[in-house]
Amino acid sequence: MEELVRKAQHGDRDAFYEIISASREKLYRTAYSYLKDEHAALEAVAETTCRAYISINRLRDSRYFTTWLTRILINYCINELKYLSKHTSEDMASIKHICIMDADGGIEERLDLTDGLTKIKPKYRDVLILKYFEDFSTEDIAKALNKPVGTVKTWINRGLKQLRDNMKGSEHCV
Predict the structure, then answer these.
(1) Does the pLDDT at position 101 exceed 80?
(2) Sign for the pseudo-dihedral over CA of 43, 44, 49, 52
């Protein structure tokens, strides 16, 4: 991947297309987890791709391309949510359901996390989405959000505590 990134930085469009193609599913999932709308998520991926193409020369270390690209996407999504919150009354930043799989691979239980996640602070919600829904490591989250690893760990712990507190009394409390 690093070689492709270096080629893309030197103007190789095919290399850029290849690395974006490899990242597009993860980008879409991340955008959808923020925006909760298929069209808006696709627009976010397209805008992120455009912004990355224009500014790929600013990337200092090709090893961090995925983190850099994700940061562009997250910033776009956050800005879009701010814009939407001013223009709609819907809460676009919620995650509606996750499925817990049993040992046989079947759906054991469906958790409705909408209320729990929408009631926690946005910075905590962001790290929980990246950590548990997008499988980012704590270090990658820190790089994507430009925060120290210790801060990210604290936010994860506080976010989980707030989520647990919000889910208490719910029939789906874990």
Answers:
(1) no
(2) positive
